[in-house]
Description:
Elements: E1 4-8, E2 47-51, E3 57-58, H1 60-70
Antiparallel strand pairs: 1-2, 2-3
Amino acid sequence: xxxxxxxxxxxxxxxxxxxxxxxxxxxxxxxxxxxxxxxxxxxxxxxxxxxxxxxxxxxxxxxxxxxxxxxxxx
Length: 74
Ligand SMILES: [Zn+2]
């Protein structure tokens, strides 16, 4: 099983929104506008994921693949 470490995103301090009000794309946000985002965009998760052991960063898409393939919630 892949162990994943969660760390606070250094670009938004865990808020999912940058200081300038834009969504933080580093941790998974899409588009602009922060908390007042128009439909179709979203703020970041505020966390980055790393594979424990190797320290390799894991994207949100990859995380979903890992979770579903290992069926850890099923
Ligand atoms: Zn972030």
